[in-house]
Amino acid sequence: xxxxxxxxxxxxxxxxxxxxxxxxxxxxxxxxxxxxxxxxxxxxxxxxxxxxxxxxxxxxxxxxxxxxxxxxxxxxxxxxxxxxxxxxxxxxxxxxxxxxxxxxxxxxxxxxxxxxxxxxxxxxxxxxxxxxxxxxxxxxxxxxxxxxxxxxxxxxxxxxxxxxxxxxxxxxxxxxxxxxxxxxxxxxxxxxxxxxxxxxxxxxxxxxxxxxxxxxxxxxxxxxxxxxxxxxxxxxxxxxxxxxxxxxxxxxxxxxxxxxxxxxxxxxxxxxxxxxxxxxxxxxxxxxxxxxxxxxxxxxxxxxxxxxxxxxxxxxxxxxxxxxxxxxxxxxxxxxxxxxxxxxxxxxxxxxxxxxxxxxxxxxxxxxxxxxxxxxxxxxxxxxxxxxxxxxxxxxxxxxxxxxxxxxxxxxxxxxxxxxxxxxxxxxxxxxxxxxxxxxxxxxxxxxxxxxxxxxxxxxxxxxxxxxxxxxxxxxxxxxxxx
Length: 483
Hints:
Elements (H helix, E strand, L loop, with lengths): L25 H22 L5 H8 L3 H29 L1 H21 L3 H29 L2 H32 L8 H4 L1 H15 L13 H24 L3 H26 L14 H31 L4 H6 L2 H17 L6 H20 L9 H12 L2 H9 L7 H32 L4 H24 L3 H5 L2
Helix pairs in contact: 1-5, 1-6, 1-8, 2-3, 3-4, 3-5, 3-9, 3-17, 4-5, 4-8, 5-6, 5-17, 6-13, 6-16, 9-10, 9-17, 11-16, 11-17, 11-18, 13-15, 14-15, 14-18, 17-18
């Protein structure tokens, strides 16, 4: 596995390349473990709440709308804040912002765990999302500035493995914790478990994570931060909430308003660049084919991946009547496929370009065929081979494709570029859920079985996976080298 060397920082830049132990040494692996802990726990909390919603409603007396906001509040704050979070890392130090985000996430998790009302829980979840938006962009920024060459590719693959496993096992971990009912805490354990994990990661952050930042002359672009945040909220909130609310008029109005908001954001960036200022996102990044085309590939891939977790969980629990723990156990084959893919990607190297999304699409097609062939009365255990194939495809794509997108980004822009990448990932997942939902739920409403509706929901996901494969192949050699 080869990578293109990082461009040297521009003159006058304060971007730092920290002194590390040789790649693969103790300090290097400790850095990787600490920063991936933060990525894992924040993505896990994106998915783990799904299995706790019934318990939360019963315990706190939450309405259906309030229960949805427990999920949506985190997702919207997480997605909308990541570009700004990445820029803060460029300006004030990625390790510093990572530690701050981790500390805030710990406090917000505590607030979630002790919340005594739906309103308090929703507020705490929004705070969790803001903290995650500050923390997560620093992860890829730290990996970009700490590792080089082959080790950099391996670090990105490890990131993809951590993020994927967090999504895959969120359902299982939540089911186990709630079923265990530790100290009678029930659903609260899914939040309180974050406290010891984050405390340990925070303790080691200052000891093993090197500091790096972008151009010390830059300043925070507050106007750009406000514009992009409002624009992203206008897109993400109606997409996440739309199918639950029957696609109300306000949702379409918000989506329409996002277009001029993004236009204003880009116009502001161009004006600031002409004036010699410090825009929130350097538009020069988008002149790199590996970055611009790669972002679209990432959106396509996460539309296929993130929405699959939603469809599968809904099909197993609502369609087949499985408990959260039982359905979570059926996510295990996806995780096993991920582990296998981490080894496979290292062996295949450049030849893996585009192969991961193709494998994912094949897994979805095979799963759809099995669900239709098995019918309603057959155990879903027979779908395990298809889930293994899909897991392999996810594992062969998440880390390598992310690494390909970021491979040519200069060190001083690492965290802001990472913020854009993370935003596309989470935004793609939200968009995928919205599109899959517009196929799945109407099919149920007209009388189709859960199995038939599930298979119909898989159709756009296969298309998204195919688009990701084609786009990945169209990236420049720097992207293919990371295959």
